[in-house]
Structures
1.
Amino acid sequence: MARRPDVDRQRLGRIAEDIAVSFLLSHGLEILLRNFRRRAGELDIIARQRDVLVIVEVRTRSDARFGGAAASVGRSKQQRLLRAAQQLLQQRRDLARLPARFDVIVVHEPTCAGQRVQWIRHAFTARAT
């Protein structure tokens, strides 16, 4: 499906993030922060699921060419997310004591009534490079 011309990329991203937040809330997660921006990168959603810090990257695409939205979280994107998470944990010592995981939420067709949400838990891990 072609993207509607009146929906620009930033607006589409905000719509997808709002859908992801609603989805996470409906699954019992507490949203702590949104759009944590630092020089190292941006974390879309920081949430808590019981005693686990969940750092969520939200992706959306109108079609699955080039591997789809989930495949777009490659090694360089993962490294930026890891650096931003390190900055977050340096600033928020209360969060640093929690075990953390990185999830990806893919919102398919975010501007349609029949959008689908795919939650990829433990999408990647922090590993030494």
Note: The domain at 9-124 is CATH 3.40.1350.10 (Trna Endonuclease; Chain: A, domain 1).
2.
Amino acid sequence: MKEEKLKNSFIIQVLRRASFKWKPRYEAIKNARVSRGQYRCSMCFSACFKVKEIVVDHINPVVDPSTGWKSWDDYITRMFCGTSGFQVLCRPCHNLKTIKENLQRTKKSN
């Protein structure tokens, strides 16, 4: 069981690293660009942020918090979505979204 968990963790890390080179992800960043080195958050729209202050987020989480893990096919399909499946968020907005998703996961598991 421990070996299976380690294998799954390794595969997820490899897929995540590969997703950083996924063209639709770059398109989402390009679409959020306001000016050189400045990007607008898709949630708060309040200000422009530098590249180190933004996160490219999957609009629909890779693992749905309400249903949980389904299959590798589902995981990969959700990980490598089209440009419309990504949004650029400032770090505070991304943290809020993550907290909300984690609360959904907690409620599901109880």
Note: The longest helix spans residues 91-109.
